[in-house]
Fold these 2 entries.
Entry 1:
Amino acid sequence: MSELLTLGGLAPFSTVDYPGALAAVVFCQGCPWRCPYCHNAHLQTGRGEGPAWSSVLAWLKTRQGLLNAVVFSGGEPTIQSGLPIAMTQVRAMGYQVGLHTAGCAPKALKELLPLIDWVGLDIKAPRALYDQITGQPGSAALAWESLEAVHTSGGPYQVRTTVHPEWLPPQAIQQLQLELLLIGVASPTLQAFRSLGVGLGSGPFRGGPNLDGPPKN
Ligand code: SF4
């Protein structure tokens, strides 16, 4: 039987992935971006190495009344075409729906927003530095379009930014805060980069920050 979602894993209990809720976290497989500090790089490919979505749904039925929310994380959940139905399924079971996204797919995100109770949106850098972090030309425009959609939707959300000294030095964080302020978005929640399990290449700011412009290689 083909499954609605291609999954890389399931965290059955989390207190930190959805504000104020006990949540299960479903890790979706696949991401079009290649951030060098990606903590879930094993989820970047589309290979499904996690549980079947149907088995997760059956398990969620046994957790009704014990958990409050289901968070779709990744990888990048919004690139999976089955996500709207999967979210509808968990909402019908009484769960709040959370989404962790990098905003890679703003069109899909806009269609999903009515099904989502809370969004954790990764904004990675000021616009000028975006593509060198994601490895994808045009990624800043996608992320900012997603941010605008989430911001104007009126629903609760949190902008999160991973701080890695070689990829996002202090001056870049200040620039990002300014760019967010200009569109009426509060400063991001800064998340410290965690090195466990991450294979980094040479960061553009290795050897010291340089915010005069994109690094020259
Ligand atoms: S957008 Fe997220 S999941 Fe995708 S490569 Fe970057 S950090 Fe990893």
Entry 2:
Amino acid sequence: MKRIFPSEMNLDPIDFYDQVRTPHVDRPWLLLNMITSIDGSTHISGTSGGLGGPADQRVLGTLRSFADVILVGSGTVHAENYRTPHAPDGESGKRRIERKQDQHPRLAVLSGSGNLDSGIPMFDQDESKGAKPLIYTSENGNENLSENFQEKAEVVTLGVGPVDLSFVLRDLFDRGAKVVLAEGGPSLNHQLVEAQLVDELCLTISPLLVGGESSSIINGPVFSDPHQFQLNGLATEDRFLFCRYLSK
Ligand SMILES: NC(=O)c1ccc[n+]([C@@H]2O[C@H](COP(=O)([O-])OP(=O)(O)OC[C@H]3O[C@@H](n4cnc5c(N)ncnc54)[C@H](OP(=O)(O)O)[C@@H]3O)[C@@H](O)[C@H]2O)c1
């Protein structure tokens, strides 16, 4: 990839994204990664796959290599038929070992309703792929969850109503997570931004105009006070634009 800001340089994605990520005193560093079309769509006919390509996949793999936990909303898990990510290999894997991180990031899904499909591939991982996924849910959601999840996941119940995302991050921190990668979708993103939990935003702009009425990377009411980010890096590969922002 070619970095174009802050200075021009050809580099490997691992060197563009490998930055110091210091956890907070009571929660992990939270990195949000999303891809959009030029016109801001986050999916084509329901999934984000059509927006991406090999360059974007390399970046996704690189970002996952930094994560102790990948946090995702149930809408995305269903829409994208989520799978356990591969263990990072090559230079990303080597650096992960140097940072003494587990081989695989752990998946964590949010579902207040408990209406989760236990047939999604992420719930069928074998033990060699690390710890079982976490499900964060409410008391009602826990009652709705299929019995299949007793073996397939670790369920964490956090009160009634929508799960408080600060509690989720605190729980992940207590489990040893220093970096959490949030992978959407837009409804979850809105809450993370509103709660001021996003430290870093990695945004990929795909060279497509797709039209339609897809949500932007944030789906929810207008923020009373827009959240500010500062541009930390810009890079390009295969006509994709890779933007890295830090919370201001
Ligand atoms: N372009 C990209 O990079 C990208 C990335 C991700 C997703 N997407 C696309 O975005 C779409 C899905 O996004 P979405 O916004 O509809 O859904 P989403 O944000 O993935 O998931 C929303 C669901 O997550 C659960 N949830 C979120 N916050 C919660 C909380 N505080 N407490 C309890 N549960 C909570 C709820 O599940 P329950 O309903 O089970 O309670 C809620 O309905 C798909 O089309 C996908 O392809 C695109």
